[in-house]
Write a structure and sequence with these properties.
With 181 residues, this protein is of the alpha+beta class. The protein contains eight helices and four strands, in the order ααααααβαβββα.
Length: 181
C-alpha cells in the first residue's frame, strides 16, 4: 500500500512537530522500530490492513505495539492514534521511511550500505566513513553487510552512487577484457 503523497504529508507534519522539540532523531528511531514490528509480524500487519478488523481492534493493536517502545514520544503516539482514527495505519512503514529520509536531508546526512567479504574492524569502518564523507561532502551513516561471495574488497553504496572495489567485480572486469582480446 504505497501512496507517497499520504506518507509525505504525515511525515512532514510529524517532522515539523518533532523539530520544535528537538526530538527528530528520537522519533525517527522509535517510528522505525514500530514499523519494523509490523513489517516482521504478518499477523499484526494483517490487523492493520484487513478491513474485517474494526477501528477499535486496530487501535488496540497499535496501542499494544506503542507500549513496547520505552519512553515513546508523545508526538509520535498522537500521530499513530491519528493514523488509526483516519484509517491510515497501513502507511506506518511508508511514513517511517519518508520521515527518516526527510530527517536525514534536514540534518545533512546521507545513508549508505557497505558490503564486505568479512566483517570490518571499527577502525577500518571509521576510515571508510571518513573517506565517503569527503567524497560526498555530507555526513554518512553506514550500515554494514557481509557477503562472502565478494571474495575481498569493499562495495559501498551512498545515496544513488555505488563505489565498487570488490574483488569479484575486478575479476569479472578482467574476464570481460580477456574475452574481447
Amino acid at each position: 500500500m504505497v501512496n507517497v503523497s499520504i506518507a509525505r504529508r504525515y511525515a512532514r507534519a510529524l517532522l515539523d512537530v518533532s523539530s520544535e522539540g528537538g526530538r527528530v532523531d528520537a522519533i525517527a528511531e522509535q517510528l522505525s522500530s514500530i514499523a519494523d514490528v509490523f513489517a516482521k509480524n504478518a499477523e499484526l500487519a494483517d490487523v492493520l490492513e484487513n478491513p474485517a478488523y474494526t477501528r477499535g481492534q486496530r487501535a488496540h493493536v497499535v496501542e499494544g505495539v506503542m507500549k513496547l517502545v520505552p519512553g515513546l514520544e508523545p508526538a509520535l503516539a498522537n500521530t499513530l492514534r491519528l493514523l488509526v482514527d483516519r484509517n491510515r495505519q497501513g502507511y506506518i512503514g511508508d511514513i517511517a521511511r519518508v520521515f527518516r529520509d526527510m530527517a536525514d536531508a534536514r540534518a545533512g546526512r546521507v545513508r549508505g550500505n557497505v558490503t564486505t567479504a568479512a566483517p570490518l574492524s571499527a577502525d577500518v569502518l571509521a576510515q571508510l566513513r571518513d573517506t565517503l564523507q569527503k567524497l560526498t561532502q555530507r555526513n554518512v551513516v553506514l550500515q554494514t553487510h557481509v557477503d562472502p561471495s565478494l571474495l575481498g574488497g569493499v562495495s559501498a553504496q551512498v545515496g544513488s552512487i555505488l563505489y565498487d572495489g570488490s574483488l569479484r567485480t575486478q575479476l569479472e572486469e578482467l574476464r570481460r577484457e580477456l574475452k574481447q582480446h
